[in-house]
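Batch 3, record 17
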Amino acid sequence: MSAAFTFNASATDGAARVGEMSCPHGRIRTPAFMPVGTAGTVKAMLPETVRETGADIVLGNTYHLMLRPGAEQVAALGGLHTFMNWDGPILTDSGGFQVMSLAKLRKISEQGVTFQSHIDGATFELTPERSIEIQCLLGADIQMVFDECTRYPCERDEARASMELSMRWAERSREAFASMGHAGQALFGIVQGGVHADLREASARALCEMDFDGYAVGGLAVGEGQELMLETLGRTVPLLPDDRPRYLMGVGTPQDLILSVARGVDMFDCVMPTRSGRHGQVFGWDGRVNLRNASHADDPRPLDETSSCPAARDYSRAYLHHLVKSREYLGAMLLSWANLHFYQQLMARMRAAIVEGRFEAFAKQTLARLSADGNQV
Amino acid sequence: MSAAFTFNASATDGAARVGEMSCPHGRIRTPAFMPVGTAGTVKAMLPETVRETGADIVLGNTYHLMLRPGAEQVAALGGLHTFMNWDGPILTDSGGFQVMSLAKLRKISEQGVTFQSHIDGATFELTPERSIEIQCLLGADIQMVFDECTRYPCERDEARASMELSMRWAERSREAFASMGHAGQALFGIVQGGVHADLREASARALCEMDFDGYAVGGLAVGEGQELMLETLGRTVPLLPDDRPRYLMGVGTPQDLILSVARGVDMFDCVMPTRSGRHGQVFGWDGRVNLRNASHADDPRPLDETSSCPAARDYSRAYLHHLVKSREYLGAMLLSWANLHFYQQLMARMRAAIVEGRFEAFAKQTLARLSADGNQV
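Prediction for the assembled complex:
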């Protein structure tokens, strides 16, 4: 059918690749960075400004939206696209990760997770079936299987049991999606297994047998460090089918993105550009700048006079420093904007470099510039 | 000289009038509403969005800017226009009002006021001369004399002494401005005298003898109530020269604006549209709406589907309610925007009604609609 979810990689350069996904709400150029719209808003950004930065797709959080305003409420109001005034594609996570990191009094069983809302203490249950139901009520173009994000560090036996539970939940998610998903919507599996190569391999094989529209690598960027993350990623990606998009969840710094694209990743999401922006940190081609630092107080230069982003081009560092120090809304607005614009520019330049067969040189050069700030994670 | 500050009233309708001021940074259509950019930013608004709402001029607060980042700092960075990326006219207050309302350990003398910053306790002094110096360092198109805003309620003798001090400070401000002001910049006097008609008259006469570019009515909207405010205003405005703009400081609700334009006021400033927006209150033709109210949780209607403002037109009340309840930045951004747009629309409609000689009918009809909400101040 014409509305089917599709993914086509049109160019490769080493393991890196450029492609395009097609969803009910539009196309997504890959490698793609998805701004995080936690509670139905990319924090401190107008949706049209998110679009103008070059974002094709945003992420919504099942956990946050199920608690407030509630999935049925969003559905009654026309779905998440209408609710948040974003007419492009939306990917929703399954809620699993944030139940573990935010909710109170969690209780995990084979069936799913019961927990208390961090907002008002009300009790909720998330199961694979309920997670998919919520994602369908929200109307997400791309949905994620319900999984348990294995904590780090984690002993092998516990990591195995956690991964195997996630695989059983993946199968239940798949069955639920088969009956509830709409035409063109996609469901992605999530590889777990911690930093254990054989567990990752078992997880990838199990998921591939279930045949998902795309495959995410989960359970990374949870404290293992960049080296171990990249090692695990490098071993996992080759286990995934070439004709499906690969999504590295919750990652990361500009360096992480470059090094992961080099390993064949097509999609990313991370709160870093918006959260850092709210805290006065900005990303640029020469690394990170902390605008809280008093050294910026009398600096008349903009963040980047060559940028096409008004936030980076039209305001002095001294003014941005003043806004951050004064805790003005406009500080969070401008720095979130500048950071999201930078992230999208990075993705655009990576896509161009891949198409032109010069990704390795681009990556090397850009990584060298980015590390100039000397304070990278 | 061509750069001279000018004011021309081009149409009158009863006491109401339409005109235009010309400043170094552009023209200002009157009656004008000036959004308040306290610390060098109209809170939660991009400057280009402020402009798009129809604002010709914004207000900056001398008190806030002298404390942070400091007037000399702003001057070194090219002045307030460059600093906040607003190339239109700017009016600055004298700092007097906020020294009284915000600073700690104030000590008033004939010379001026010494006080401690509410931010870090540092000691500052404001005198008429320093206030004008700061306003010149900021580069304000329209500057205000340094005055003491008489508290309310206030006994006659105290109100008289306070007003007479303000008049001596006005004269010193005028002398300071004569030596420091730049071509085309304007200095406005401020009528004080509390709610005492004879003191207001004495103050107005004293200021007119000093010959200012415009005249403000200060010391109102400080707790005396709308009736007493309008009564005092109605007695004060006729004492001011027809060929100079009249500015009612710190006012007010949409009703206040209509009733004051009817009495011949040309300019207003107020934090109400932005502050209310941050607290979930929106203004519209049918009165105020409190979006915190649970009744909006499932309301798919926008604030005003006929509005040309995206904030009022493109988001459901249910979504705005969700943003306010979730304390999301976007809630403050959209509601400040919608409110400033509404205020500017109100000014535009008043100007059109005056030009067309139907202001009284417009005022009557609009006041009736506005009171429909039943919860006006």
